[in-house]
Design a protein that fits this description.
By secondary structure, the protein is of the alpha+beta class. It has helices spanning 2-12, 59-62, 68-76, 91-96, 99-103, 152-159, 164-173, 178-186, 201-220, 286-302, 325-337, 346-356, 369-376, 380-386; strands at residues 20-24, 28-30, 37-44, 79-87, 109-114, 136-138, 141-144, 224-225, 229-236, 239-246, 251-258, 269-275, 304-305, 307-314, 339-343. The N and C termini lie far apart (68 Å). InterPro entries: Nre, Nre_C, Nre_N.
Length: 387
């Protein structure tokens, strides 16, 4: 009912014959449908202007403060202004109209979208990777009526003729907001100028995760190992995370436990994947890539390497997907703020975590394939020490 009320409020502020007026937080999505002629979604909360618009898309600010229902309510109040068939090979057109610059502004940008279409499609759209979007209306044009405010580092790379990966890493090293880097890549603001293209937002999230991980991991492999087994914990939006770091060269295991009636699960489901020392993983999983980046950042900060086990438990409290940002942020908070135990042996840490699971009576972590492999594997170091 709250979501319905929010949608009704948003729709009531707009007449199809008029412009949708307000400030984008900013919030822009490049879709994948009909590639290479893709949709651009420019989100505006009607009637909301200036700094008040920021909370409508603020993953870092939301974490730990906004409930799932509050996030859905905020997203329901934004109108998705839909520009269809945008050519991915012409990002300069969006730059000329300052649409792409509005997308990477660090302050909300006054905007309006003009439409001659009838009727707003009044429904929410959910996604496991992208933040939900609200009611949508196909528009003829989007006008940016304010000056976007860009960070100096980001603005520099819009004009520099360097490869996109170089731009991503340099921005990352200079402390640019992670989500701005994703949007900048998606809107074709980085890269060799002759090669620049729009990138569907879902793809750009994975590309940035991979580029930063590729940069951090070789450095981490040169560091010394941690001295003891460490267990960290955090939770948010019905997702419960335990992270185990153990003395080892880098390797990683990701386990997801989906409770009945949670998203996409009518019965208890357990899935896992593993990543080896060289950064080769079983398959690409957006949730793992988000959590993995937070772990790599923490190991790099500590100048240590370790074996990693990440256990994500998803309960029925998480009744609607809001993207994978919360996975990254929750993992980060756990490693920064909440070490809950240390152990001498990995098996003891795994048993400890197992007893803390909400599904503890139905799941044996030691019997999960990827974890079992860690426990029975004899390392070269231990073999040499026995000799």
């Amino acid at each position: 009912m709250d979501r319905f009320r929010s949608i009704t409020i948003a729709v009531s502020k707009v007449h199809s014959s008029e412009a949708i007026k307000g400030s984008t937080p900013p919030s822009i999505i490049i879709g994948e449908k009909n590639y290479p002629k893709v949709p651009l979604i420019y989100n505006i909360p009607p009637g909301v202007q200036g700094d008040q618009a920021k909370e409508y898309e603020d993953p870092k600010g939301w974490w730990g403060k906004k409930s799932l229902n509050e996030i859905l309510s905020l997203r329901s109040q934004m109108i998705s202004s839909l520009l269809k068939k945008v050519d991915i090979n012409d990002p300069f057109k969006l730059y000329e109209k300052e649409i792409s610059l509005a997308g990477v502004s660090y302050k909300p940008v006054d905007s309006n979208a003009v439409s001659d279409k009838k009727g707003i499609e009044a429904k929410l759209r959910f996604d496991g990777v992208l933040i939900p979007r609200g009611p949508s209306l196909e528009v003829n044009d989007i006008k940016v009526e304010d000056n976007p405010k860009l960070s100096p580092h980001l603005e520099k790379f819009i004009f520099d003729d360097v490869k996109a990966e170089e731009a991503i890493l340099e921005l990352y090293r200079n402390g640019e907001d992670y989500y701005k880097i994703i949007t900048g890549l998606s809107l074709g603001l980085f890269g060799l100028k002759k090669n620049r293209k729009l990138v569907p937002t879902r793809w750009s999230i994975t590309a940035v995760d991979q580029a930063i991980g590729k940069y951090l991991l070789p450095q981490i492999r040169r560091f010394g190992e941690i001295d003891e087994v460490e267990v960290y914990y955090s939770s948010y939006l019905g997702n419960y995370f335990h992270i185990i770091l153990f003395p080892s060269t880098y390797r990683s295991v990701w386990v997801e436990i989906w409770h009945p009636l949670s998203l996409w699960a009518n019965e208890l489901i357990v899935s896992d994947l593993s990543e080896d020392y060289w950064g080769k993983y079983d398959f690409l999983d957006g949730g793992y890539m988000a959590s993995r980046l937070a772990v790599l950042e923490k190991l790099h900060e500590r100048k240590r390497q370790a074996g990693v086990i990440i256990i994500r438990e998803i309960t029925a409290e998480y009744y609607a997907p809001v993207g994978n940002w919360h996975i990254r942020e929750t993992t980060k908070r756990a490693l920064e703020e909440n070490k809950i135990a240390t152990f001498e042996g990995l098996r003891d840490a795994i048993k400890f975590v197992n007893m803390r699971l909400k599904a503890k009576d139905k799941v044996s972590l030691e019997d999960i394939k990827s974890i079992k492999k860690l426990l029975v594997q004899t390392s070269i170091d231990s073999f040499l020490n026995k000799k």
